[in-house]
Amino acid sequence: xxxxxxxxxxxxxxxxxxxxxxxxxxxxxxxxxxxxxxxxxxxxxxxxxxxxxxxxxxxxxxxxxxxxxxxxxxxxxxxxxxxxxxxxxxxxxxxxxxxxxxxxxxxxxxxxxxxxxxxxxxxxxxxxxxxxxxxxxxxxxxxxxxxxxxxxxxxxxxxxxxxxxxxxxxxxxxxxxxxxxxxxxxxxxxxxxxxxxxxxxxxxxxxxxxxxxxxxxxxxxxxxxxxxxxxxxxxxxxxxxxxxxxxxxxxxxxxxx
Length: 257
Description:
Elements: E1 4-5, H1 8-12, E2 20-23, H2 33-42, E3 47-50, H3 61-66, E4 70-75, H4 82-89, E5 94-97, H5 100-111, E6 116-119, H6 126-129, E7 133-136, E8 142-145, E9 151-154, E10 157-163, E11 167-178, E12 183-184, H7 193-199, E13 200-211, E14 230-233, H8 236-239
Parallel strand pairs: 1-14, 2-3, 2-11, 3-4, 4-5, 11-13, 13-14
Antiparallel strand pairs: 6-10, 7-8, 9-10, 11-12
Helix pairs in contact: 5-7
């Protein structure tokens, strides 16, 4: 089955307002730049986004935030995004902050057909006991807070119950993809792309390189094509677009002749 579609615009055309999205990437590493841009142009709003973070100001998911397209975020941290923090504290955005490993496992479990799981992460904190502010009133008081979760003991260790996550759509980026949707990710770009792809009922991949079916060896595949429904081929220029959050350099050391 050839899953390659003509463009990013056609790939996201049927995403409806109110949809939930799992989005791959960590910071700006491995994010689906051009699927996000196409969704921005498409216009869907009232979106729930599940991602490690929500981009940065002026880039990635931060663009959807600036246009008020996102109403709820499930993430592990705010990151380098002042607009994210402003909307959250001003009561304009619902934010469910989740421990990073727990978030990854919630998405992976959703894709694996697991309804919930127990983990020791968060026991003894508001993650388990409830009271985490999910949404504020404009005056700074809490409008919506998390509920207590079930805590049980396994093998002598207390653990908290976490529900898995399944989203309407997943947007991810891969280095090499064959026409059947089998994906290979480059280095740290694997990050949240694999669990995000697993969590989506409809998974769309933007591919830096597309190869024919059979060119990828079975042991090379990081994400089987069974989890992927649509593949968008990037141009060479698009594939080379890989920004970073902060560029930190040090002066060159002077060397003697």
